[in-house]
Structures are given as structure tokens and as C-alpha cells.
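Key result, reporting period 2: structure in, sequence out.
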């Protein structure tokens, strides 16, 4: 598979024990923490190494995490600045999953 194959959707894996969503090679990932007895997913950090940037991996990681939260009826706290400042403004349909009770984002 060519490294520049941007038309291919990367496979994102849920690493439940590691509390992250990651690419198959584990080099790009989105870390999360569960709160409120597992009813709220706090998305803490998204990381893509320099060698893989510009391929949309961070967005794919976010979509996988938000889909998981939706399927599990979880609310989301977008602590990660990439998610709150870049991903959500470009993908406003996911804002319906945001948790807005006594947890407040640090935006």
C-alpha cells in the first residue's frame, strides 16, 4: 500500500485497555478517559506524528471516537484543543454529543 494513498480510509482500532483509538501501526492516536461511570468520554489528546500529518488521520481518529461514543450512548467532553478548535467547527453535527452539565471544557 502506498504511503500517499489518500483515497484509502485508514483503519482505526479501538484499544480499550489503552483507552485510545489508534491507527493499526499505533503511531497516531486519540486518548480518552471515561467519567460518570462510563457515561462520558473525555477526549484528552490527539497525536499524529509529523511523518503522517496532512493525511486526515486526526479527523479519522475523531470520527471513530465520536461514532463509538454515539453507539455507546455516551456524551463527549472535547478537552483536546484539536477536537474543540478544529474538528468540531468543521464537523458541527457532532456537537449534539457534547456533555454540558457540570463538566466544562477549558475553551
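The corresponding designed sequence is given below.
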Amino acid at each position: 500500500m502506498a504511503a500517499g494513498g489518500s483515497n484509502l480510509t485508514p483503519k482505526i482500532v479501538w484499544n480499550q485497555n489503552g483507552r485510545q483509538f489508534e491507527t493499526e501501526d499505533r503511531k497516531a492516536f486519540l486518548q480518552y478517559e471515561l467519567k460518570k461511570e462510563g457515561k462520558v468520554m473525555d477526549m484528552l489528546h490527539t497525536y499524529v506524528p509529523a511523518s503522517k500529518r496532512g493525511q486526515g488521520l486526526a479527523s479519522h481518529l475523531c470520527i471513530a471516537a465520536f461514532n463509538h461514543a454515539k453507539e455507546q450512548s455516551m456524551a463527549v467532553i472535547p478537552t483536546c484543543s484539536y477536537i474543540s478548535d478544529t474538528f468540531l467547527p468543521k464537523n458541527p453535527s457532532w456537537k449534539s454529543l457534547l456533555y454540558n452539565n457540570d463538566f466544562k471544557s477549558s475553551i
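Residues 1-5, 102-107 have pLDDT under 50 and may be disordered. The longest strand covers residues 40-47. This case is discussed further under Risks and Mitigation.
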